Amino acid sequence: MKKNLLLLVLALAVFLTACGGGNANSADSENTENESSEAIEVNDDIEVYGVVKTGEKSVISLPIAVKVEMVDVKAGQAVKVGDTLLTVDLDAITEEMEHIKSQIRTVRNSMPSGTSAYNNANNRAEQIRAEIKLAKEEQAKAKPLLDAGAISASDYQKYADNISKLESNLKAAIYDMQGVNENKAERQQSSENQIEDLEYKLKQFEDAINSNDFSGDKVVVSAGNAIVESVSAVSGAYVPANQELVRLLADQEKCVISAEVPEEYFSKIKIGQKAEITALVIGDEVLNGQISFISQIARKGGSEIMIPIEITLEAGKKIPANSNVDIKIIAE
């Protein structure tokens, strides 16, 4: 009897232990299921890399050759409208302008009139015409003498030969008159072309120093706030006309980040969708933004097809241009 009771107690203990273990396994299973669900929610967010876009580039150059006295900025420096980029030798510019004006006056004063040469040729032609008229009158008087046999045919021919010679001389005189006019026209055109070139050059100087890019002897920022991308000018050096001096990047009012997402996420993103941005350059700060552009043209990136997108940061927040960033596009 005691033996049977002991066996019953042991059986009951085994049953209770089995029931407790089942409940523990059930709890563990439920916990695992919950953890798996949280992981799916995290994975629904799309994580990509991006680069902060630069503003529109602009090249500062001048249509005139200048001597740079001082470079007043460095690459990477933020500048605003009115800030000095370069200091140039304004006296040298003024002297060059005066030299051009002097050249224009000299060319104008030496422009051919042609009056004297034309008058000489014209007077000679008029004199020859008078001689021809007189020669023809004398020929007419000699005709009756020829008919009467008072002079020979050879003597009468001399009148005709003289008239022919005078007419030839008249043609030469008229040709000279035309030549004077043509030469005058050619020289006139050459002078006018020279003056036109000089006046164009002078206007370039005047337009340059009167433009918004100049303030006295300073080359200044005129188009808007910017960041200096590069400086080509060197203090003390002469710079030819139209050569790059400084390159600026427009300071964008809003910070825009370019990125790409794999094609399988195309249907999961939309304009206005929120994103979180982190970057080494801003430390632990997390910035908020939203998708502002989704390209409708895919691009092949290595073995994947990628969709270009742009993220615009919230107003007032900026990250230095060309910085690498991490982007988390929040699932909706």
Describe the structure.
This protein has three domains: 44-53 and 253-329, Elongation Factor Tu (Ef-tu), domain 3 (Beta Barrel), CATH 2.40.30; 67-89 and 217-250, RNA polymerase II/Efflux pump adaptor protein, barrel-sandwich hybrid domain (OB fold (Dihydrolipoamide Acetyltransferase, E2P)); 97-210. Strands 1-11-15-13-12-16 form a six-stranded antiparallel barrel. The protein has a five-stranded antiparallel beta sheet with strand order 6-7-5-3-9. Strands 2-10-8-4 form a four-stranded antiparallel beta sheet, with no helix packed on it. 46% of the residues lie in helices and 24% in strands. The relative contact order is 0.17. It contains four helices and 16 strands. It has helices at residues 2-44, 90-109, 115-147, 153-210; strands spanning 46-52, 57-60, 66-71, 78-79, 84-88, 214-215, 218-220, 226-231, 238-239, 246-250, 256-262, 274-278, 287-294, 299-301, 304-313, 324-329. Strand 14 (299-301) and strand 15 (304-313) form a beta hairpin. With 332 residues, the protein is an alpha+beta fold. Helix 2 runs antiparallel to helix 4 (153-210) and helix 3 packs antiparallel against helix 4 (153-210).
